[in-house]
Design goal:
The chain folds into 2 domains: about 160 residues, 5'-nuclease (Rossmann fold, 3-Layer(aba) Sandwich), CATH 3.40.50.1010; about 90 residues, Winged helix-like DNA-binding domain superfamily/Winged helix DNA-binding domain (Arc Repressor Mutant, subunit A, Orthogonal Bundle), CATH 1.10.10. Helices cover about 45% and strands about 20% of the residues. It is built from 11 helices and 9 strands.
């Protein structure tokens, strides 16, 4: 699983923390967007670095076939499995139930310093703004990538966007192929590619990939010698620069 964190979290490791997970939305998001299920244990391993976890609460309608089988997996982390089944009612009260538990913890456990939510729903913005601004709480958000409300992200102290493991590998391979194609095309036309320019060009033509993601993949390709850095003189300025060139095996593979 890949995690994209907007702020450093080293100082959070000793902060008393309670966690609220909209599991049903997380599950359906994974299934519909990425055709996989949540990596709950991978997420929890990442979570443990971001606070002194005192409790984790999972919210979902566990009467459904799609969620019922998840209960056992979730109990390996926490026994606080909150069933939000609505019976014959049409309205979904999951958000209200989750909010109720958040406010109960605020009242009953004032020593809890950090509230972490797994949701991308902007409906929680007012609640977390109240916790942060009027109760001096630290607010962290986990959300499946592509599901995070900008308003929710803005209201939190920090947020993490989660990408399932299979999607992470797929995205890395797509970026790698784009870099290879770009460098191959530039070499054919005897043009110079630098690290910064390559990242900028790939991002400009493929904005679905963040510059940091492209930098990470490109750095890995350089470390593994798939791409090499060679000193060259820029014809426009006469300055020395590090030119990116494909390794010999990759050149032969493309040709």
């Amino acid at each position: 699983m890949e995690y994209i964190l907007n702020a450093k979290s080293e100082i959070l490791s000793r902060v008393p923390t309670v966690v609220f997970v909209d599991y049903e939305t997380w599950l359906y998001g994974c299934v519909n967007q990425y055709h996989t299920e949540p990596d709950v244990l991978g997420w929890f391993n990442d979570l443990r670095d971001k606070g002194q976890i005192t409790d984790v609460l999972f919210f979902a309608d566990f009467t459904k076939d799609t969620t019922r089988h998840s209960a056992l997996k979730l109990r390996s982390i926490s026994n606080n499995i909150i069933d939000c089944s609505k019976g014959e009612k049409e309205k979904d009260y999951s958000d209200f139930i989750m909010l109720d538990h958040i406010y109960q913890r605020l009242i009953r456990q004032p020593d809890i310093k950090q509230f972490v939510l797994f949701t991308g729903d902007g409906h929680f913005q007012s609640a977390i703004a109240f916790l942060r601004n009027f109760n001096d709480k630290i607010i962290g958000i986990y959300s499946l990538r592509g599901s995070l409300s900008p308003q929710l992200a803005e209201a939190a102290n920090w947020y993490v966007e989660v990408i399932p493991p299979d999607e992470k590998d797929k995205r890395r391979d797509e970026i790698k192929n784009l870099i290879m194609e770009n460098l191959g095309r530039l070499e054919e036309n005897d043009k110079i590619a630098t690290f910064t320019k390559t990242v900028s060009v790939i991002h400009r033509h493929n904005p679905q990939f963040a510059e940091d993601d492209i930098k990470h993949v490109l750095s890995g390709m350089i470390e593994s010698n798939v791409i090499q850095k060679v000193e060259t003189v820029l014809p426009s300025s006469g300055f020395l620069a590090k030119r990116l060139v494909l390794g010999k095996e990759e050149v032969n593979e493309i040709s």
